[in-house]
Amino acid sequence: MDWLYVLMPIAGVKIFWPGLIILGIGVGVIGGFFGMGGAWMVTPGLNILGFPMAFAIGTDIAHMAGKSLIATMRHGKFGNVDYRLGLIMLVGTVVGFELGAQMVMWLERLGSVEKFVRYLYLFLLAFIAWMVFSDVAKRKSKERAAKAAGQEVDKLATGIEWHKTFHRIKIPPMVHFKEAGVYCSAWLPIFVSFLTGLLAGVLGIGGGLIRMPALIYFIGCPTHVAVGTDLFEVMISGLYGAGTYTYKGRTELVAAIIMLVGASMGAQIGTVATKYIKGYGIRIAFGLAVIGCALSIILKLLGKAYPGWSAFFDNSSTALILGLVSIMSLYIIVKMVEGAKKEIAAKKARSAA
Amino acid sequence: MRKMLSNLFAWIGMAVLLLPALAQAAGPAAANIVIVADTRKTTGLLGWWANLYNESHLYFALLTVVLIPIIGVIFGTLADLIMSRIGIDLKSRELAEH
Q1: What are the tens digits of pLDDT across the range B17-76?
Q2: Any idea where the domains of chain B sit in the sequence?
Q3: Element (H, E) at A60
Q4: Taking a C-beta distance cutoff of 8 angstroms, is the pair A82, B95 a contact?
Q5: Does A246 touch chain B (CB under 8 A)?
Q6: Which of A151, A264, B28, B89 has most Cβ atoms within 10 angstroms of its Cβ?
Q7: What ipTM did this prediction achieve?
Q8: Which residues numbered 1-60 in B keep a CB inside 8 Å of some CB on A?
């Protein structure tokens, strides 16, 4: 069974390559569906496969750049990417991210940075999960009220509508984002992306997990456009990250390429699946993924609090994340197949008639 | 609008050029760890690959930035081709929240 293992020429270890492809497919499907890079899912997976951690981040970012590029192209063809919004947000993201990184340096000098970062991450995930599920609850109560009045709620109506308040701020220049269907001050996306970039910089994450809900709840993007536009940002930061990490010698390109084979195909499946799942379906699945991510961090914190049990808690956290990746990607694939079957059957029925 | 966008691109360009240097300057002195690939174990393409890594991280990084998007596009297009062969409509979607 030696052929199932491939030598990583830089790290000097042999890795089970089908495992890399399977991991790639899983995170590709989830990434294309939710519009995020998914580094928090990839790193434990690489760890399980015996991948040296010195190369984990660089390898993850390199494969992320490729998969988000092709997924952005596919979302773009569906009209899910607002390129103007993405480019404007890039300014805030870059500045915010660098400021966040500087803040971490400052916190490091004070000590206890790790604890602060973990608790902040946890608080943020809890806030996102609360936002998503209270939005779903509000949406449902609106639906019930409309039904009672013998009316129907608009297809694009949402539960939480904070963005409407933000849109009333008319500081020039005012910009119309066509794909997102949003007309607001250019400062709104710049400020929101600055905040999400700052948080991503402090937390040391790519930021897709924060930016996607921010695009929905603060800017007012429809869910599908938020997913596509977020992927556009992930693509640019991924390409920059791939270059800089590789230049620092921290990318195992052979592993990145093997993962990318699965991830680029998985990302297309995840992207096409958004066609068959309504916006609120994506929001609920995203909220569940956020809860899973938060639970994995709680397990890591417990491992730190009880050193005698650290192996147990760390392994449980890894198992939870990998279980979550498997369940989520399977759910998305099943939904995509079901939707495609219906679409093809409808097409055949139309041509027969 | 056009003027605003061109200003924006100029700012992005400047940020991309300046910020990495700024971050490096502000960061703590990094440990100078040099990872060297063991080329004794590798031959052929993998050997060339490992040698390139050892000789120039710059060329290696440039090759990465070129190869990764190309490979992503090739396999992504392949997936598209398979899906459109199956009969999935890859040109339109209905935007609906519920």
Answers
A1: 554 444 444 444 444 566 788 888 778 888 888 888 889 889 999 999 999 999 999 999
A2: 2-86
A3: helix A56-77
A4: no
A5: yes
A6: A264
A7: 0.84
A8: 1, 4-5, 8-9, 11-12, 15-16, 19-20, 22-23, 26-28, 34-35, 37-39, 41-42, 46-47, 49-50, 53, 57-58, 60
